[in-house]
Write a structure and sequence with these properties.
The chain has about 270 residues and is α+β, with helices and mostly antiparallel strands. The protein has a 4-stranded antiparallel beta sheet with strand order 1-4-7-8, covered by helices on one side. It has a two-stranded antiparallel ribbon with strand order 2-3. A hairpin with a 5-residue loop joins β2 and β3. The longest helix has about 50 residues. The termini are far apart.
């Protein structure tokens, strides 16, 4: 049997060329002569004899100052985003409230066109009346039950809306205990601390809309809670319309934080 011959890898051939590997008798080559000497190692490619590499450098961690700066930047950006987002939400809610008070007035006038009178109980006919006043006695549900053709309250047995015409539509509160721009499905205390009854319609901030109606049909409606400035009234704090509606806005107070001045406030008035 032919004996196996130990041959060097191709990459060693250049280093072993001085020993005339090619001319040597393969059978006479000893195992010792197969390996290159130390003087021959310098001719080997560096890939076969890699130099020891330096230990990898540890990744530098953030310093306390750098972390503090990053946190401050994030906090500042979050503040800008929150402020912009809050302002956008407030603007959208105010726009929705303006749309609501306009629709309320439109519905009341449509009722008047249909029935020749305003949606008020007989006992109220002949007197200007304010509904939904936080400190008053008449909840705005008295008006909305009629406009929504709901068989309840002053409209029991559809007394004030016998044709059951729907003049105003609104959704029921999704969160009964914290309603927003919806019809109440249970009695609640509004964010401005006032009681509101089932069937009342609240603004985007959860407070009841106020509605004033010209019950004596003289072409003007009395504002029983007049502003001290920013609004022009007729004689006796009247507004020259058959009805009007308003919201005290986000703070739930007349004027800016209750100063009763319309200018600079977030109040929403149907006639302004």
């Amino acid at each position: 049997m032919r004996s196996s011959v130990l041959r060097p890898p191709c990459s060693l051939l250049p280093a072993l060329s001085r020993r005339s590997w090619a001319k040597a008798d393969p059978c006479s080559v000893s195992r010792a002569s197969f390996f290159p000497t130390s003087s021959e190692l310098r001719f080997l490619p560096s890939a076969l004899c890699p130099l020891p590499s330096a230990a990898p450098r540890a990744r530098a961690a953030f310093t306390l100052i750098e972390m503090t700066v990053v946190i401050l930047i994030i906090a500042i950006l979050a503040g800008f985003i929150f402020t912009a987002g809050s302002s956008t939400i407030d603007h959208a809610r105010k726009a929705q409230a303006k749309n609501d008070v306009t629709q309320i007035v439109t519905a009341i006038n449509a009722y008047y066109t249909e029935y020749g009178k305003y949606p008020m109980a007989d006992i109220k006919q002949g007197f200007d009346t304010l509904y939904g006043d936080p400190n008053g006695s008449y909840g705005n549900e008295d008006v909305f039950n009629v406009l929504r053709a709901v068989n309840a309250g002053v409209n029991a047995n559809n007394y004030l809306n016998p044709r059951q015409i729907i003049f105003f539509t609104a959704t029921n509160a999704k969160v009964p205990t914290a309603p927003r721009e919806a019809v109440l499905t249970q009695n609640v205390t509004t964010p401005n601390g006032n009681a509101a009854n089932i069937g009342a319609f609240v603004d985007p901030w959860g407070n009841t809309y106020m509605i004033a109606i010209d019950g004596n049909y003289d072409g003007s409606t009395t504002d029983y809670i007049p502003y001290t400035s920013g609004v022009t009234y007729g004689t006796g704090n009247t507004v020259s319309v058959g009805c009007f509606s308003l919201s005290y806005g986000k703070d739930g107070k007349q004027g800016k934080n209750g100063d009763k001045k319309y200018s600079g406030s977030d109040d929403v008035l149907s006639w302004q």
